[in-house]
Design goal:
CATH class of the largest domain in chain A: Mainly Alpha
Organism (chains A, B, C, D): Labrys okinawensis
Radius of gyration of chain A: 20 Å
Oligomer: homotetramer
Order of helices and strands of chain A: HHHHHHHH
Protein name (chains A, B, C, D): TetR/AcrR family transcriptional regulator
Structural class of chain A: mainly alpha
Distance between the termini of chain A: 76 Å
Keywords (chains A, B, C, D): DNA-binding
Number of strands of chain A: 0
CATH superfamily of the largest domain in chain A: Tetracycline Repressor, domain 2
GO molecular function (chains A, B, C, D): DNA-binding transcription factor activity; transcription cis-regulatory region binding
Strand content of chain A: under 5%
Number of helices of chain A: 8
Helix content of chain A: 55-70%
Number of domains of chain A: 2
Pfam families (chains A, B, C, D): TetR_C_24, TetR_N
Chain lengths: 198, 198, 198, 198
DNA sequence: CATGAATGAGTTTTCATTCAT
DNA sequence: TATGAATGAAAACTCATTCAT
C-alpha cells in the first residue's frame, strides 16, 4: 500500500517535528528511538526518512530553528527601546515569557548541545553567543552610562541567563504563580544585584 | 586465565567509577556504552559486572553519593554560623567552590535525572530538595529577621541555585578569573538582589 | 504536477539503461540501488517504474540483449568465410574488438549471471552456449580437416574464450597497446597452441 | 543464556569462515547477509561480532589470506626448478591444481575485488601483482634464453592466467576429465603458443 | 576477579516497490 | 509520465547483560 487514504505530507512532517521534540525532551536525544517516533506519528520507521535526512539532522534543525527564532523575537522586543535600564527590563520579561511558553524547546536546547556532531555544535554555539551578546551589550552600555553597577559584564551575562532560564526546570503553568508574578520576582532579583549603590 | 597479573579489585572499581563519570559527562547516560567504559578501564565488558550491578545502578550511585556528600559538606560549612546574612554568604561561597571543583558530577547530576528509573529518580529528587531547603531556610530566616528582602522565598531559592550552578557551564580553571573573583562577583549579584531597600 | 517540462519518455528510458549499466558495472547488481539510479537520471525512484518493470528485469534485459547482439554480430562477421583457420582468425579478431569496446556490458555479463533468478539465468546461459558453440564448431571442423590440432575441443573452447575475454580486466584505451596489436598478440597465443605439430 | 554448553570459540570462528566463503561465493558480497550467515552457523547475528570486526573485514581477510597462501605455495612449487620451460610447466600445473581445488576462494577473489573499500582493494591488488610477476619473470627469462617466443610478456602473462583461471567457471570434479587431463590440455594450449617457430 | 562467547532485543538506516494524485 | 509519501522487510551493527570456564 502506497499512500494511505487521507495521508498528507506536510501534516506528517509537522507531526514528526512535534513528536520528535517531545521524545527528545522526555528521553534525551540518545534515549529517543526513531521507532518510537514513527509509532507515535503512525507510520513505519523507514517512512520517517521521507521527511528527515537523519536523526542528527532532526536535532540540529530543532536547535538552529529555536535559536534563530529566539534571537529574532528578542530583537523585535527590544526595537525602539533606548535606555539601558528599560532594555534590561525588556530582556528579562522577554526571556522569561519566551522560555515559559517553550519549555521543551529550551530544555532540549540546553541539554542536547552535547549530542550534536562537532560541526553542528559549532553552529548552534555561535547562535547562542549571538543571543547572549544582546544582554552583554545592554549590561555594557548600562555600565558606561552609570545606570548599572555590573561587577563583571561577561559573568553577569552568564549568571543572569542561567538564573532566568532556570525557570523551565520547575515552572508549572497550573502552579501558584502566574507569568507576571514570576517576571516581577526575577526583575527584583536581577536588577537589584545590578543597581549602583546609592 | 582468571585474574590478570597486577590487577586489583578495588583499583578496578575506582577506575570504573572515574571513567564512568567521565563518559556520562561526555556522552550522557544513554549515549555512554559499557563497552567503551570497559575498554577505558582495560577489562572485558562482562567483567564490569564484578563491580557494578547494572548500568542504571552506576548512575544512581553517582547521583545519590553526590547529593549526599554535597549536603553533608554544606552542613559542615554552615555549622556555627548564625546570622542569616553570614549564612547566605557562606552558602554562596560553598556552593560555588564545590561546584567549580566537581563540575562533571554537577553536570551529570543536573542533566541525567531524566535517565533514572522512576523509583530512583524519586530518591535523588528528595535529596536535592533537602539541599535546596537549606537555602530556603536561610532566605526565610533572613526575611523574618528583616535582614533580607526576598520577593518569594521558594522562587528565589530556585533562582539563586540556578544562577550559581550556571558556572559549571562556562568555568575554565585556566581562564581569566579565579575562584575568589567568581565568588565575589556572584555575591554581589545575589545579595544585591536581596537586600532591603534603604 | 505530472511531467516535468522538457522531459521525454524515450530519452528517460535510455538514460536509465545507460546509468543502470554503469551502476551495475561499478557496484554489482546487489550493490546498485534504484535510488542512486533514479538520482543520476534525475527522477524520483518511483518514477523508474514507468520504464522498468523490476530491478531484476533491468538486469535480465541487459544480459539477453548483450548476448543476442553479440551472437548476431559474430554471425555477420563470419558470413562467407569458409576455411576453419580463417574462421578462427575472424573469431579471435571479432571477439576481441567487440569486448574491447563494450567492456562494461561484458564485465556485467560475466559477473552478474549469479544475480539472475533461476529461470532468467537459464535463458542467458542458453544464449551463452549458443555463442560458445560457434567457436566449438570452428575448432571441430579444423580438427576434422586437419588444419588444427586441438587437444580437447570443449575445453579449448572454454580456454580460448576465457583468455580472450580476459582483456576486459586490464585493457586501457589510452594504454601502451592499440587494438590491432592486442589482436595480433592473442592470435599468436591462441593459434600457436592449436597448430598441428610439423 | 551465556555460553551454550559445548560451544567453542575457535570452532565458531572456523564455521563463520567456512559459511561466509560459501555465501559470498553463492550470492556475492553484497548479496550475502550476515543474518543468513549467523543462521547457518547457528548463532545470533550479533554474536558474529565476537569473531569478526566487520562484514568488509571478513571479505578482506579472505582475499588477503588467499593471495598470500597462493603465492607462498607457488614459491614452494617452483623452488629448485631452474629452466624456464620447466618453470612454466610447473606454473601451469600448480595454478591449475590449486585453482581446481579452491574454486570458491578463486571465484570470490576474482569477482569481489570490486566490493573492497579502496584501501583494502589496493592491498589485495598488490598481492595479485606479486603473484602475476612470478609468471611474468618466467616468460621474460624464457624469452631471454631463447627457450620461448613470447609476443608480449605483460599481455601473455594476463592472457595465460585468464585462460588457466577460467577452469573454475566450468570444472566439475565428477565430470568427464580429471585434473591430470585438464592439465595436459592446457599445457599444450599455453606452451604451444609460446614455443619458438622451428 | 577476569575472560570470551553468547543472547535477544534493539539501533539507525536502506531498499525495492506501490499507488493516489 | 512524474511526484511524493508510504510500506514492510531487511540491512549491518550495538547494546546491556549472562555465565561456563
Amino acid at each position: 500500500m502506497a499512500r494511505k487514504a487521507g495521508s498528507d505530507g506536510s501534516k506528517t512532517a509537522e507531526a514528526i517535528r512535534a513528536a520528535g521534540l517531545r521524545l527528545i525532551f522526555e528521553h534525551g536525544y540518545e534515549g529517543m528511538s526513531l521507532r518510537d517516533l514513527a509509532q507515535i506519528v503512525g507510520i513505519q520507521p523507514g517512512s520517517l526518512y521521507n521527511h528527515i535526512t537523519t536523526k542528527q539532522a532532526l536535532l540540529f534543525d530543532f536547535l538552529v530553528e529555536h535559536m534563530t527564532r529566539l534571537t529574532e523575537a528578542l530583537d523585535a522586543a527590544l526595537a525602539g527601546i533606548e535606555s539601558p535600564l528599560a532594555r534590561l527590563d525588556t530582556f528579562i520579561e522577554f526571556h522569561l515569557r519566551y522560555h515559559l511558553t517553550r519549555r521543551m524547546e529550551v530544555f532540549v536546547n540546553n541539554s542536547e548541545l552535547r549530542s550534536l556532531e562537532p560541526q553542528n555544535r559549532a553552529v548552534v554555539t555561535g547562535l547562542r553567543r549571538d543571543y547572549e551578546r544582546r544582554l552583554e551589550q545592554i549590561l555594557a552600555e548600562g555600565t558606561r552610562s552609570g545606570a548599572l553597577n555590573v561587577p563583571d559584564v561577561t559573568i553577569a551575562t552568564f549568571a543572569i541567563i542561567a538564573q532566568l532560564t532556570g525557570v523551565v526546570g520547575w515552572y508549572d503553568p497550573k502552579g501558584r504563580l502566574g507569568e507576571d508574578e514570576i517576571i516581577a520576582i526575577h526583575r527584583q532579583l536581577v536588577v537589584g544585584g545590578l543597581l549602583p549603590i546609592p
